[in-house]
From TrEMBL:
Transposase IS110-like N-terminal domain span: 21-164
Source species: Marivita lacus
Signal peptide: none
Coiled-coil residue windows: none
Pfam family, one: DEDD_Tnp_IS110
UniProt protein name: Transposase IS110-like N-terminal domain-containing protein
InterPro entries given in the database record: Transp_IS110-like_N (IPR002525), Transpos_IS110 (IPR047650)
Length: 166
């Protein structure tokens, strides 16, 4: 009986060479593109709207078509919408799926690792409804909050009237 070699991995085929990735943060986003497309493949961008448009312009100049982003909070929403508005195919990746590999301790290496995983088609995007549905959901949630706040304010007024014996 012959012994089979373990640990050998077949050659992975790059599915998306024009992939990019962003490690989303509250004050800074680290973005990575294919090292063949740019002299500086990893850059930091701010979180303001103009910074996000600059990020989209940089991606276009590097020939990017698809972007994977990783975020644990709500900071991804403006970046997602701006990039989608610029015509990129954007996916949001759950941080748990990409963080389980040891050795990456900085945002720069995280962004590069995400880009590499995305270029090989190894990342799965979270569900994100279409823009019109997301807008409708935001309106409905805001309305629900306002109705709840109105009920609480009515109770406060009733309590004040009772305390004044009116």
């Amino acid at each position: 009986m012959t012994k089979t070699a373990t640990g050998g991995h077949p050659e992975l085929k790059m599915v998306n060479p024009t992939a990019a990735a962003i490690d989303i943060g509250s004050t800074m986003h680290m973005a990575a593109v294919n090292p063949d497309a740019c002299d500086t493949p990893v850059r930091a961008f701010g979180t303001f709207t103009q910074d996000l448009h600059d990020l989209a312009d940089w991606f276009k100049s590097c020939g990017v078509t698809s972007v994977a982003m990783e975020s644990t909070g709500v900071y991804w929403i403006p970046a997602f919408e701006v990039l989608e508005g610029h015509g990129f195919n954007v996916i949001l990746v759950n941080a748990r799926y990409a963080k389980n590999v040891p050795g990456r301790k900085t945002d720069v290496s995280d962004a590069g690792w995400l880009r590499q995983l995305h270029s090989y088609g190894l990342l799965r995007g979270s569900f994100r409804p279409e823009a019109e549905i997301a807008t409708l959901r935001a309106y409905l949630r805001q309305r629900e909050r306002l109705v709840e706040y109105a009920a609480a304010h009515i109770q406060h007024m009733q309590k004040a009237l009772m305390e004044m014996n009116l």
